[in-house]
Specification:
37% strand, globular, four-stranded antiparallel beta sheet, Rieske Iron-sulfur Protein, binds FE2/S2 (inorganic) cluster, mainly beta, 146 residues, single chain
């Protein structure tokens, strides 16, 4: 393991709140804004996610994503490792790679490709609007399991 890796457990708790954000645990229509190419799901203010950190984010359908800040650029991938389901948000991040902390599988956050075995995880577009990180949901199925 490289010395310059930053483990999620080394990071203080990230409290994500912005006055433009609302809880989404009740009304399905209260936080999702349409965009040209999908629905925007607000995650947290840009300032709440420091460079080199990972942030677990739960979709309304209970699927989990991990949002990554890599040198000021934001990426979103599935949170559950396809090997044995460990949360990637508990892993380490370096360059454009997230490493699962359970057995070390590595994933490129730009493509979702696993660098360890022939495997791939889902990636999501991320868009920053008015200082808030949003995940772009192309498919309503990803949101509510219709
Ligand atoms: S659970 Fe992630 S590498 Fe095994």
């Amino acid at each position: 393991m490289r010395n310059d890796k930053l483990k999620h457990s080394d990071i203080d708790l990230v409290f994500c709140y912005h006055s433009s954000m609302q809880s989404f645990d009740t009304d399905q229509n209260n936080t999702i804004k349409p965009s040209e190419s999908g629905s925007l799901l607000p995650v947290c203010p840009v300032d709440a996610l420091a460079r080199g950190t990972l942030h677990r984010f739960i979709l309304p359908n209970s699927d989990e994503l991990v949002i990554c800040n890599i040198d000021g650029e934001f990426y979103a991938i599935d949170n559950l490792c396809p090997h044995q389901g460990a949360p990637l948000s508990d892993g380490a991040v370096f360059d454009h790679v997230v490493e699962c902390n359970r057995h070390g599988w590595q994933f490129d956050v730009r493509t979702g490709n696993c660098l360890t075995v022939l495997e791939r995880i889902k990636t999501f577009q991320v868009r920053v609007v008015d200082g808030v990180i949003n995940v772009v949901m192309e498919n309503q199925q990803d949101l509510f399991d219709l």
